[in-house]
């Protein structure tokens, strides 16, 4: 079982639009409403892969009730933490050329009692977990050290933990040695404090995160592929994608693919790449099922192309 923790979940509404013209009336050609948040997306992808998952998330108000209903309809077990504030609602505008514009609300502020209930719920639900995936931004009220505390508690209980967050929360958690961290290129650059222009730059940055405590780094480099660095070495994975429809949740789908394949080594990286590539071919934040995957389109190599320029270099 893979347990996911989403401290700041959302109700996500995605509109497909021909183009986004500022100040004009834009008519959508498609619309989806999905439960959102990075950990929620990981649970959705794990469930789509046919594996059991439990989603721990604070929920409040009508949007929170709808998130729970949507997850239940997808066969995902929900361990809700009731909060007084309403769950946030986000909007994404997906243009036909693959450009995505997102408007993310801040979400409710959690009280001290709600924070403790969230940690206690994770503790109770983690007894049967193979992995805990902690994902996304922290809501108002939670200190940057909150994820570090959660990692320490998970390891004390003998459970492996994957962390997908950024900024001070990521840096604070590294000291507790999470089993895997999954930054994207921008988050990786932010963590080391310098831009990344080549795959080699990303590799050096991932090695620095390992030096700071991460046991493994799974870095999403967008269209350039994915990089895995752990105790056994480094691998680089790419996949052929003919057309991008939406990249919402692609990184979350990748993490799910990595974990359902064991969470270690080149086989798990290949699964991560296949899941990420499948996700970008789907509308909105729809998560891929096994039939959507194309393992034959995936290439994984230990010969990391360090001189390859990133098509989307970070600033």
From TrEMBL:
Query: What name does the UniProt record give this protein?
Result: 1-phosphofructokinase
Q: Name one GO biological process term.
A: carbohydrate catabolic process
Carbohydrate kinase PfkB domain span? 16-289
Tell me where on the tree of life, at the top rank, the source sits.
Bacteria
UniProt lists the family membership as follows:
Belongs to the carbohydrate kinase PfkB family.
Query: What are the top taxonomic ranks of the organism?
Result: Bacteria, Bacillati, Actinomycetota, Actinomycetes, Kitasatosporales
Q: GO cellular-component terms in the record? A: cytosol
Which species is this record about?
Streptomyces calvus
Keywords recorded for this protein, A-Z? ATP-binding, Kinase, Nucleotide-binding, Transferase
Q: Which GO terms describe its molecular function?
A: 1-phosphofructokinase activity; ATP binding
């Amino acid at each position: 079982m893979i347990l996911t923790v989403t401290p700041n979940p959302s109700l996500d509404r995605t509109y497909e639009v021909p183009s986004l013209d500022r100040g004009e009336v834009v008519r959508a050609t498609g619309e989806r409403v999905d439960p959102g948040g990075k950990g929620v997306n990981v649970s959705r992808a794990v469930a789509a892969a046919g594996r059991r998952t439990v989603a721990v998330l604070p929920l409040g108000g009508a949007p929170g009730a709808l998130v729970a209903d949507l997850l239940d309809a997808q066969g995902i077990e929900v361990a809700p933490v009731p909060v007084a504030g309403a769950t946030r609602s986000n909007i994404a505008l997906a243009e036909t050329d693959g450009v995505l514009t997102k408007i993310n609300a801040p979400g409710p502020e959690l009280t001290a009692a709600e924070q403790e209930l969230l940690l206690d719920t994770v503790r109770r639900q983690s007894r049967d977990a193979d992995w805990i995936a902690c994902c996304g931004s922290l809501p108002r009220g939670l200190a940057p050290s909150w994820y570090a505390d959660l990692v320490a508690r998970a390891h004390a209980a003998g459970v492996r933990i994957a962390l997908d967050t950024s900024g001070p929360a990521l840096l604070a958690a590294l000291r507790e040695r999470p089993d895997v961290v999954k930054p994207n290129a921008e988050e990786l650059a932010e963590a080391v404090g310098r831009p990344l222009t080549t795959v080699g730059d990303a590799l050096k940055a991932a090695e620095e995160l390992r030096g700071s405590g991460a046991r493994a780094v799974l870095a999403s480099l967008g269209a350039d592929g994915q990089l895995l660095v752990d105790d056994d070495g480094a691998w680089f994975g790419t996949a052929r994608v003919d057309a991008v429809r939406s990249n919402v949740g692609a990184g979350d789908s990748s993490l799910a693919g990595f974990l359902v394949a064991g969470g270690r080594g080149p086989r798990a990286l290949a699964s991560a790449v296949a899941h990420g590539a499948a996700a970008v071919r789907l509308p909105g934040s729809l998560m891929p099922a096994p039939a959507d995957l194309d393992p034959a389109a995936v290439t994984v190599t230990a010969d990391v192309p360090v001189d390859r320029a990133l098509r989307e270099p970070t600033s």
